[in-house]
Task: structure prediction
Amino acid sequence: MLLIASGILFYNAKAQEKTKWLLGAGITYDNYMNMPGINLNVTYRVVKGLHVGPDFSALLNRDESENGVEVLKKELEYNFNANYLLKISEGLSLYPLAGINFSKVTVHPINSEPSKKIITAMNLGGGLEIELKTFRIFFESKYVTQLRKYDLTLGTLFKI
Result:
């Protein structure tokens, strides 16, 4: 009986804990590539308002002309960000954001070898998170220093 009671108490305690891990996906846009892309992220809720985690953005290929030559550009972006949710009302929070960015920018002129650059930068920005019953919606904007660009991302977060 004692073993069963302990199991029930343990199960109830685990059920009341808030999930600390969130998995997210969304659509992103930046003014550097001037194209949409996809964003995937994982967030870990460290303590009450402090959250950290990596995210990845793949921006779609873009054809453009540079000095009369057709060029294909693409960007892959890896970030590790921290933010602190400031509760505005029930289910609505604002947050400042800071982090580190690693971007791989490829410029591929037609009929030539591609040029690849790895760029390390800082992220600074903020966002808005709306908590619904089974998921969260987020909108965030961040400035990436070395590329002098702004990223805008709209997505959803799910408890895992």
About this structure: The first strand starts at residue 21 and ends at 30.
